[in-house]
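Milestone 3.1: sequence recovery, worked example.
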């Protein structure tokens, strides 16, 4: 089982993560501090310049380290192979990710890398197959890019009428309908859409597939 979950040797070597990153992952330690310590008035000017000159990791680099740093797959390879098989069989299908956690951003990122041919195990490099679902060469664009492809369900009781769908974000707000409405009324959230009845929710999901 572990062998099946291990990245191909070529892909693992190409990633070439620093040993200290691998050790942190194996020991369950945070890879980096998300917030840099603010400089105090007593900080030496040379220290400030050194901090300014530090190389910052991109979000792509962070995700690569977090998800593949241990030399294992994040999304299991059978998922990707199923998509490839369905495409070869010329089957019509859609992919919907659902979670009760907060891992959708990472899952979406990896899936989009697969669709773009940039996944370390499906890039055409190091003996891996080149797979694309980005709209190029007649392929279907399956990438998750638009805000309306993301949504969050809220259930305020066991009644179907109290199930709401907020389309445009996968960031969950407090499970209180009044607070949710106040949140949606803010100017910065005008791109979000509240679907209050089950038919509207069904059509909203269907239109994104």
């Amino acid at each position: 089982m572990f062998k099946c979950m291990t990245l191909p040797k070529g892909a693992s070597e190409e990633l070439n993560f620093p040993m200290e990153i691998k050790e942190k992952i194996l020991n369950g330690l945070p890879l980096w501090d998300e917030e840099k310590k603010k400089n105090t008035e007593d900080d030496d000017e040379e220290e400030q310049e050194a901090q300014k000159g530090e190389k910052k990791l991109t979000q792509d680099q962070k995700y690569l380290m977090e998800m593949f740093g241990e030399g294992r797959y994040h999304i299991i390879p059978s998922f990707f192979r199923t998509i490839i098989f369905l495409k070869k069989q010329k089957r019509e299908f859609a992919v919907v990710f659902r979670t009760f956690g907060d891992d959708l951003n990472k899952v979406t990122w990896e899936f989009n890398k697969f669709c773009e041919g940039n996944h370390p195990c499906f890039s055409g490099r190091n003996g891996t197959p080149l797979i694309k679902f980005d709209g190029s060469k007649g392929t279907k664009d399956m990438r998750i890019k638009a805000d309306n492809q993301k949504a969050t369900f809220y259930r305020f009781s066991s009644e179907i009428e109290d199930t709401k769908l907020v389309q445009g974000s996968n960031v969950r707000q407090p499970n209180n309908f009044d607070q949710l409405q106040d949140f949606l009324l803010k100017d910065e959230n005008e791109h979000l859409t509240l679907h209050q009845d089950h038919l509207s929710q069904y059509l909203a999901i269907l239109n994104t597939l």
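The longest helix spans residues 77-88. The chain is about 40% helix and 5% strand.
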